[in-house]
Amino acid sequence: MKFTLSSGALNSRLQSLAKVINSKNSLPILDSFLFEVANNSLKITASDSENIMQTTIALDSCEGEGVFAVPNRTILDAVKELSEQPLTFDIDVEALTIKILYQNGMYNFTAQNADEYPRTTSVPDGATLLTIDSSTLADNISRSLFATAQDELRPVMNGIYFDLTADCLAIVASDGHKLVRNQNFNIKSDTPASFILPKKPATLLKNTLSKDGGDVVIKFDDRTAEIHFSETVLTCRLIEGKYPNYNSVIPQNNPNKMVIDRKALISALRRVLPFSSESSQLVRLSLAGGKLELSAEDIDFATSAKEQIVCDYTGNAMSIGFKGGSLQEIINNIDSNEIEMQLADPSRAGIVVPAEQPENENILMLLMPMLLND
């Protein structure tokens, strides 16, 4: 069997797929990519047994059809250093040998029998379908990943929750201390449906989805999701269980509102945070008039820091404490020039939103406060 394809196309697809493969696998065959040649195209599969990613490349020329497995390190190292050029694969499927011819040389190595490679089971017909723009999905996942938990007792908190309702699609992540909710009002369904996407496939999507648009189609049932985008399919096992009612923890009446320059607040936090207690990372926010005062101290080492920033504040003078590292993560994951902080009192969660919401979307982040010892 012989076929020819572009080295650049092969390398870029292999680099994306390689992120699926674990460093240690339960089955030795999962250290390899599965190559399937048929109908003038090459389908490449990578799997860690729970997540399966497949991509298809059109071939420049093709003689014969067949299936074989290629050790991932060997093929990645072989094509990574090549400049853009045609590669000709010459495979003896019986003897399991691979010869790759390129402009100034050739590689010879051994293939593996593909019979042991686990077969993919597709999501059955009648599953729920969801279509979302690839750049929107990539943004929502990037914005949410940091808020997922690492909780062995409550595995449902370890993923990103997709909640499709009659009003909108909400993409939610929370670890019990912080929460991110992205609402998209363009996507809705009269039949409510939901699933919890684990962290690994979410990270794979974040790294491989293109920012230049195109649709992503997600087909899911109770156990599995099949995600189709630009000649690639990612099939993953979902986290099973009931996600907590995230809307119930968002405080509704927050009369104290502060609008502030996002970059100025990040810079001030970076300067003040190193002076807080290493164990608690407590940073106090004191609001009055048109000023925000950030302060932190570590009594054990007799260090403290204070900084004032101008802001637009309406409400009663108040002080509230937050974990500085978590507050920093939240502000870093909002993409707007100004942010608005909505507060009720020092014992209730603080809400952070962009001062201007994207069109047909609503982004909200929430952080639980810390107790202040006055």
Structural class: alpha+beta
Mean pLDDT equals 94
- The coarse overall form would be elongated
Radius of gyration: 25 Å
**Number of DSSP strand runs:** 26
Number of helices: 6
Strand order of the largest sheet: 14-11-12-13-26-25-24-18-22
**Main sheet makeup:** 9 strands, antiparallel
Termini separation comes to 77 Å
The proportion of strand residues reads 35-45%
What does this structure look like?
The chain is of the alpha+beta class and 374 residues long. The protein is 17% helix and 42% strand. It contains six helices and 26 strands. The strands form four sheets. It has a nine-stranded antiparallel beta sheet. Strands 6-2-3-4-17-16-15-10 form an eight-stranded antiparallel beta sheet. The longest helix has 12 residues. The radius of gyration is 25 Å and the shape is elongated. The termini are far apart. 33% of the residues are buried. The mean pLDDT is 94.
Compact summary:
The protein is α+β, with helices and mostly antiparallel strands.
Task: Name some characteristics of this structure.
single chain, 374 residues, nine-stranded antiparallel beta sheet
Task: Summarize the topology.
Blueprint: E1 2-6, H1 7-18, E2 32-38, E3 41-47, E4 51-58, E5 61-63, E6 66-71, H2 72-80, E7 86-92, E8 97-102, E9 105-110, E10 128-133, H3 134-144, E11 160-164, E12 169-174, E13 178-184, E14 193-197, H4 199-208, E15 215-220, E16 224-229, E17 232-237, E18 256-261, H5 262-272, E19 282-288, E20 291-298, E21 303-310, E22 312-314, E23 318-323, H6 324-332, E24 338-343, E25 350-354, E26 361-367
Antiparallel strand pairs: 1-5, 1-7, 2-3, 2-6, 3-4, 4-17, 7-8, 8-9, 10-15, 11-12, 11-14, 12-13, 13-26, 15-16, 16-17, 18-22, 18-24, 19-20, 19-23, 20-21, 24-25, 25-26
